[in-house]
Structures are given as C-alpha cells and as structure tokens.
Amino acid sequence: MTDRLLLGSGPSPVPRQVLGALAQPTLGHLDPVFGEVMDSCAALLRRVFGTQNPVTLPLSATGSGGMQTMVDALVRPGDVVVVGVNGLFGERMADALGRVGAEVVRVEGEWGRALPGDRVAEALPDELAAAFLVHAETSTGALNDPGGLGAAVRERGGLMLLDCVTSLGGVPVRVDDWQVDAAFSGSQKCLNCPPGLAPFTAGERALERRTGRSWYFDLDAYVDFWRPGGGGARVYHHTAPTNMIVALREALELVLDEADAEREARHRRAHLALAAALDVLGWRRLVPEAEAAWPLLSVLVPDDVDEAVLRRALLLEDSIEVSGGLGPLAGRVWRIGVMGAGARPEPQERFITVLTRHVGGDERAALDALHAGWGGA
Amino acid sequence: MTDRLLLGSGPSPVPRQVLGALAQPTLGHLDPVFGEVMDSCAALLRRVFGTQNPVTLPLSATGSGGMQTMVDALVRPGDVVVVGVNGLFGERMADALGRVGAEVVRVEGEWGRALPGDRVAEALPDELAAAFLVHAETSTGALNDPGGLGAAVRERGGLMLLDCVTSLGGVPVRVDDWQVDAAFSGSQKCLNCPPGLAPFTAGERALERRTGRSWYFDLDAYVDFWRPGGGGARVYHHTAPTNMIVALREALELVLDEADAEREARHRRAHLALAAALDVLGWRRLVPEAEAAWPLLSVLVPDDVDEAVLRRALLLEDSIEVSGGLGPLAGRVWRIGVMGAGARPEPQERFITVLTRHVGGDERAALDALHAGWGGA
Prior knowledge:
The structure is a homodimer.
Chain A: E1 5-6, H1 16-22, H2 32-49, E2 55-59, H3 63-74, E3 80-85, H4 88-99, E4 103-108, H5 117-122, E5 130-134, E6 136-137, E7 142-143, H6 149-155, E8 159-163, E9 182-184, E10 198-202, H7 204-208, H8 219-226, H9 242-257, H10 260-280, E11 296-300, H11 307-318, E12 320-321, E13 323-324, E14 333-337, H12 345-359, H13 363-373
Parallel strand pairs in A: 1-12, 3-4, 3-5, 5-8, 8-9
Antiparallel strand pairs in A: 2-10, 6-7, 9-10, 11-14, 13-14
C-alpha cells in the first residue's frame, strides 16, 4: 500500500472519511437512497459555487470533462469566443474550442502573472458568443479575478464561462455575484475527493444556448436525471458513477463544515506560511503575492538543484508528491498544492523537513518562518 | 450504510476486494506506482477484450462515454454509419451519431430478439464509414452475434464498432477474431467494478481515422498518457481517475482468475438456472434461449403483478435491486442481472426466496429448478 502525501497540483490529500464513503457498498443510480445523496451533493455544490443555479451537479468525467461540456453543450462552430490565456489551462480551452470550429479570440497574459477579468473585458469585441477565464491557473498559481468581465460579457449578449478547478473550495467563488453563466471544477483539488468528477453549474442564460451536440455531455439529459427542481421521476441517462458521487458528497460536507471565511483565511495563511518557509531556503515565489491563488504555490527552483531528480527522490524515498512546471516553466518551477486538508501545518512541516534533508539549508529557520506564518511563536 | 444485492442491469455486485482497492490512499496520475497499475490494467483489458491492440485502456468516463468517444474520435459529419437497432442502446448510438451530423443508416431488429451481425451485413451499402452493433443489448438481454459483419465492413473500407458493455467478461468477446476496429464497455457490468470507467480498445485502422474533434475524448492524448507501447515519459492529458483505475485493475484480476471457458459456462448456467426457477413461478423469458445474452435475463412480468410496486418493495424492504423495462418494454419486463459475482447460486436463491414471499408460488419447486440448473441434486 502506497500512501503518498499529495502536495502537488492535485490530486490533493483525501481524508479517511472520504475514502470510507468511496468504499461504501455500491448503490444503483436509480436507488432512492442514492437520489438523496444526489440532492444533498447538488445542494452542497451550490453553496461552494456561490450560486442559486438549479443546474449544479457533478458531471461524470474528470475536471477537463467539465471544460469539454462547456465546449460541446454551449458553443457552436463559428461562435466568437474570447479566451484569457496566461497558462496551460487557458491554452487548453483555446485548443478545445478551435477543434469544434469556434472563432477563438485570445487575450494573452504572462505565465506566472494574473490576467484580471477587467483586462480581458477591455479586449472584448462588440459581439461575442462567450468569454472564458481560468480563475486559478493551475499551471502557475496565478489568480485571475473575474472583476467586471461577467457584466461586460452579458452586455454584449455573450456567456461568461469560468474554470474553477483549483479555486473551488480554496478561494471564494461567487458564480452569481460575478454574473458567471457556467463554471466547472474538479473533485481532486480543494475539495479533497479523488479525481473523477467535474462539479458543474449553469444558469438560465447558458441553458438557453445549449446545443445538444454531444450525447454524453448533454445538459438536458443531466437535468432529467438530476431533477434539480425536484419532482418527477429521475430519467435514466447514463449509469452515474455512484461511489464517486457518494465520496464527493462526503468531501463537500467536510469542506463546508468550516465557515467560508475561515476556510479562505486558512488557505491564505497556509500559502503565505509555506512561501515564507521556502523563501528562507532560497526558493522564491513565481507569482507576486498580490496575484497569487492560495491553493497553489509555484516556486522557482534554485539553479543548483536538479528539480526532476529531487522531485523523484521526494516521491520515491519520502512519499511526498509535488508537481513540476508545465510548458515554458518546465524544469524551472515546482508547483506545491495548498489544498484543503493539505493546507495545514503538519503536512507543510513534513515537506520542509524532508526538503532540507535533501538540499540543505537552515531547517530550523524555515520551520520558524512556517510557524510564524501560521501565527505561532 | 445501505448494502444492496445488485441484481439489476448494472451496477452489479462489487466484491469486497474491489471496494478495498477503490479506497486505497489516492495516488497521483503521474506516480510511477500508478503507472504500473495502468500497465497491468491495460494488459488485463487486452485479455478480456480478446485483442492485441496496444491502445486498450479505460477511458475517464462511464460506459456511455466510451460510445461518445467512438462518435467524437472516429466519425465525421456526413459519414455514412450503419447502426443495428434492436433496443435502447442501438437507438442511443443512432441518436449520438445524428447529433454530430453523421448519415445514419438504421438496420432494425425487434426489441427482445437478436439482430445478428450477418443480417446487418446484408444491408450494408457499398461505401460506408462505419457499422455499429451492440453485442449484448442491455435493454432486452438479446445477444447480437457479430458473425461476419466485421469482415463485410472492412471489405467496404469501413470501421467495425462494437458495444461490449454488458457482454465483456460474461460472454466471450473476441475483438481481433471478429475484425472489430473499436469497442467499448462499462466497468459496472460483468467486471463487477463500480460505475465510472469505460474500457476501450481501438486498432490501427480506427486510429488512422481519428478526428481529434473532442479535446477530452482525444485518442492521441490518451495514447501519450497511457504509453501503450511502453517507453517515453507519460504525457499529462487530464488527471486520470486514479482510485477508480486501481479498483478496475483489482476487478479485472478477479475476473481473469477464472478461466475464460469456466467463466462463460458459469454465466450460461446461472442464466439458465434462474430462467428455470422463474419459469416455475410463471415468469417467462422474453428473449428465446438461443438468442440470449447470459449476463442479463429479461422476464415477462405476470399480468397480476404491479411490477413497479413490487420492484420498489424488493429494493426498500429486501434490499434487492432488479431493473424494470425500457422503451416499449417499460412496465412489461424485469431485467435481472447475471453478472460476474451475481452469477452465483447464493444471490439467486435469495432473490427467488424473496420474490415468492411477495408474489406467492411454489418456492420449493422454484429453488429445486434453480439448483438443478446449477447441476445440484
């Protein structure tokens, strides 16, 4: 049995209770007991997404399947879609949209810096079908504040689409306040559930534009099965991944046991404490603090460190997983998860201790910085 | 904790070992330990699919996501695709193909009877992009023997596509012998794994036609991550559902612990024994025995039984799940799973005993017929 400390870009540490829920005897997808799980899972997702959208549910695919659902269910060939690109996940959406024949208008940002929604708003054409922003860029750890982008997109008659994969549960997500028409996430980041589900929400404006092009990612069929308004029998679409949904419900309950403000403060504290500890060891943050997403800390690997060798040693010798860089940042940064159960002093202490054992540096001073960041002595 | 005896059309009974594997601590999708799980999972899938195809792996979606992958990855708008339709899952494929602009040529069969591949072959046009057959129609329990359809399709330059959702692991599947170019299944039928993964295989002829239209269901990206030829680093595509894949590997090992011939014989025996027991009680089989898929027994509900009320009572009072009819068979049949761990005397005895308690009839005679079917006294 391999028991990793998952401090990479996700999956994140999965609490014992969530694994226990995952391993409950399998329920049928039309069992009324499972129906209750679905209803409560959907209600909890609405809370964490900050939305009243009835259509809020986990899609039967990983987080990227949530992105594909936006593309397949809400975008038509020829549609003008503006995409903010300051990392791999903006690139990915541009790629996915291009594949179905959308006319992609890229708004570029630097990898490792924030691309605020207001900057994307300035670049909007007069007419567009949709705009897409990645809230927390998992490839860099930059937070792209939606700002007034939702309002600006609606003014032009388009849909505001948001990737909340790494943000959901770790920084506030306010789908309704931000006038977001559809958003998706992944189960394996700040929700601390294993990977395999894509939390998804869509408002009325989005649903009016649904295409029905994909049978599997058809929103009408999801609605008929999930019955978000209650009432009427659930209509079979596909066999829902029942064990995963039971686990997600448990994970969401754990997440929401903590008040929103406390949870955000904890992620912020965990991020800053870890950054301070690593700074003592000479690992500088990539993203300026004011532009950072708390759930993911990217740090520049010191020049004298072979990051791939070290990362593998941490994994295989110490059972600690961290993530390397992607794209232009490959070989140059580490991405360290600060997600949910991973955003606590104990796993961070273990990481700092193990890291100093490998690369040297003042372990005591680094741990002191960590503890100071957590508000300790 | 709700512990159902799952004797419906799936999910099927999940062995304790599989639930245990599911709840192992989560692994990262790029962890070498998980990489070993992937390699062995793929190797086991090749055995159960009866194929040497390197590209044989579980897609990160439920069984129907496997169907969608065929549509998105292998079919282009305007393509002529012949679809055998003798139940809901043939209908579903025709629907999914129509949504992407394929020209669907339907070959109709009766719901509850087999539609052999040879009959579909007779209706093939001179030129076609693909033909699709459902091996075991989960909506009726009819087995559609591919026969010479694969060869006939290849002669015309098309791809032979096969739905193996309910057949895989319960009746022999011979992808290579049957000249099948791509096939998919679901984890939750005869493999006895929870729902959430779509075992999939594609041969060289299929891969040559891949479209790349869907980012999520892109076969190139799956190949780069799964590295079916071995060698080279796995390239990140999406975060694979690691716990589910660990569970599927365990489930496949259990399936393949039993020799193919024995497993098929057991499913056949279980199917015939249950049919005999139900016949004693006046529940007649829908599909003629010679046309039946062993993993699913559809029986006609006697006229004096309110099937929905009875089905609900079995579920809520006795914790036994069976499935009702679909489409034109709704309210008229029950579909009873005979899948893997469910294809054993004990669960069938429990079902017969509970059923007679509700509807009367000669329990002793029914159980005698069941045991005789299993070769007992």
